[in-house]
Amino acid sequence: MDRVVIVGAGPVGVGAAILLAQRGVPCLVLDRYPEPYPLPRAVHVDDEVMRILQEIGVAEDFLRLSRPGLGLRLLDARHRVMAEFRRDSTSGPHGYPQANMFDQPDLERLLRARMAALEGIEFIGGAEVFAADSSSVRYRLTSDNTEHTVPASAVLGCDGANSTVRTLIGAQRLDLRFAERWLVVDGVCESDLEAWGGVHQVCDPRRAASFMQLGPQRYRWEFRLFDHEPLLDVEPLLSPWLRGTGVRIVRRAEYTFRAAVADPWRSGRTFLLGDAAHETPPFIGQGLGAGLRDAYNLAWKLAADLQTPGGAPDLLDSYERERSPHVRAQIRLAKVAGWAMTGGQDRAAAVRRVVLGAIWRLPGLKGLALRSTSPPLRGVGSGRRAGTLSPQPRVMLDDGERLLDEALGPGWSVLCPDGRAVSPDSGHRVVRVTPELDPSGRLRRWLRGRTVVLRPDRVVHATR
Q: What residues does the FAD-binding domain cover (predicted)?
């Protein structure tokens, strides 16, 4: 079997390589830079994405480097709280805190170490890809300017918003009509600011802003820039938050937050993942998570295709069909959230304050705002829950308490209520959900007496 060639060694590319290697698929990872990008970028993943990091094998180490986010506070221009939406900081339905704040270089170090520990993955840094098709990739080493050609069983373009692979396959970048300039500042303070442990969003049309703590004495600020406005002096922007505390600026950069999606995501056996396939505004914290969802969705399908005589073309066809509508739905939500929190003029801001206050007073709407469950995937299997992600409570195995995914293993599985007969398809692992296995009763309450078939990515394929 030729190797899968992955272009781009950010979290999505390295994550995809690990997921494939764990399924016995050899990979070659190429990146134009020899070392990981050293400065912070992504800062949040939810509990669904934590399950992917669990599958990759870095969740426990990641928890030691991250901190639970308590939720979201909406502030007015004077930093008075208009509304507060709290998240579960202990364990949500997927076994992890619903919001997890972190410094991206920390995650990248964990992923690179995990990649290096696995057999079947080769990494080449300083490699600029200039040609690719479904059977080979050509790249140039920046160290000596030599050109190389490698055969490929498939090519994954994980090379970011300015993707070379996207250009090479002729995919279009569809503008979804959102572009805002923001100033992003990361800093390390001399002492802890004793701020509330969630995200603060300043809903001020004159200067929308965000503030969050990433770790001990590590903080991020984001400030909206208007069109043609010059890059701002950081000191007066930070002073209301610092209150005299000294800060060392780690990064100060302007970004344009965009909404876009590639069309198509695939040409033959070449696929786009992460920012190469889609860009989303950061207002619901799903940018990196969307890319890792791409990797998890595609990895098990590509492994099955490569390891099945005659391949599994229907599985490969389902990658874009499932992921593109899911991403578009999250982009729409991010755009709406961005407008609600930062957009509008003075009159709109006044109306927005009244509406947010009303939402805070209505438990039903508040619960909807707090829900972290992502949209179901379309066109998956059969039954009411098809396309949704199963929960992951702790279960009791012979060797002690474990999270559910550890009991399910890497392949297809069947969750069967105790006492119900089941004839599983070949290769499906049957897990009988007894009171002994499920002492909390959470899994039995979710099953409601039904038998559920789960795909390797824990998405419900069918209920019976």
A: 3-332
